[in-house]
User: What shape does this take?
Amino acid sequence: MGVIMVDVKSRIPIYEQIIASVKQSVLDGIFSTDESLPSVRSLARELAINPNTIQKAYAELERQGIVYSVPGRGCFISSDTEKIEKQHRSQLESNLKALMREAIRAGIDVEEIKAIAIKIKEETLNDPN
Amino acid sequence: MIQIENISKSYGDIKSLSDINSRIENASIYGLIGSNGSGKSTLLRIMSGIMRPDSGKILYDNQNVYENPQVKDTVVYLSDEQFFLPNSSVDEMAGLYASLYKNFSKERYSQLLNLFGLDGSRKLSTFSKGMKKQASILLGISCCPKYLLCDETFDGLDPVMRQFVKKILAEEVVERGLTTVIASHNLRELEDICDHIGLLHKGGILFESEIDSLKQEIHALHVVLDEDKSIRDIFTGYHIVSESKRGSLTTAIIRGDKDSIEEVMKNSSPKFYEIIPLTLEEIFISEMEERGYDYSNVLF
Assistant: This one.
């Protein structure tokens, strides 16, 4: 617990922050398949936010197939975490494309970009963290 | 559920409320926003069953509240001016509340007294303004009501106390399904607590909605477009609330969810774009302007 975080001062609706936070936790391996999400009750108390908002966020996560609910027992991470990974991947790809477009416009050569990518890959292989 | 049906109220020549209708679902936290004199306090007093409306009725789970002790037993109203018996201590006030409310819980009372860090035997007249407010909140919650009506109760609490009261409210909602109505003239006081919000203006509800869906349906877009393109060409079929240009940067407020706006942007690949959620205040400004009201005359 304590991995679902919200910033009440942010412009991003609390509801969306909860959804994003759960997805990120799955990607980071903090939540694994069949693990339970904090109950609405405990999260509402911990974060001092409206339980109805949490309920709604959990319902949306269920609709997206990221969690499943067991009546009386709460919400659990579904086995289909691939879905989140896919979403994340396409998000990364589109961010990368935007960045590339900007780099090429700014006059950075494609070969240079390749060199940077290769260098980063080597560094990551040597030190995964 | 609270049903507000055709409520009107005048004080002599002064019309305070005219034909108000609304529904508040159980376990919801409903924010009632309005400027001074918009009728918030009058509406809350009528909702508490102590003031008779000129016409219309307030129903709690289909039962009229006016002069109905059974219903009133489930409703606690926290006035903006707390009333305490002269020379009384918190404990003595608790005794009064316990004699009035069947569900008053001594256990919850001493627990809350402890959490708030207040001395129950101390005279309320020696309390600071903020402490009096805390005392009235804790007395109200100790009555274990089904419905809690708060008139500017959260305004002016310090940040720590505010967070604390929010926690207690959240707990009451999950544990007992408490329904809360909070009136305030300050949108920021309501934004992070409420799930529904209604705007009262000159005795009528101008506008009412669920906060989350409100925020998902409208976004601001900052974009740098190619010279020959315009926002209206790109966003055909979308409702563009407003649009302004500064240098090459266009700022537009568009009705639509984030994903679909993002999709449109990706397809037209502008040099730069950014989609920003609006604050509740910004949403209210655009909603009001669309309804032909000048926002500055409505709030703050």
About this structure: Residues 82-105 of chain A form the longest helix (24 residues). Chain A touches chain B at residues 8, 11-16, 40-41, 44-45, 48-53, 56, 94, 101, 105 (CB under 8 Å).
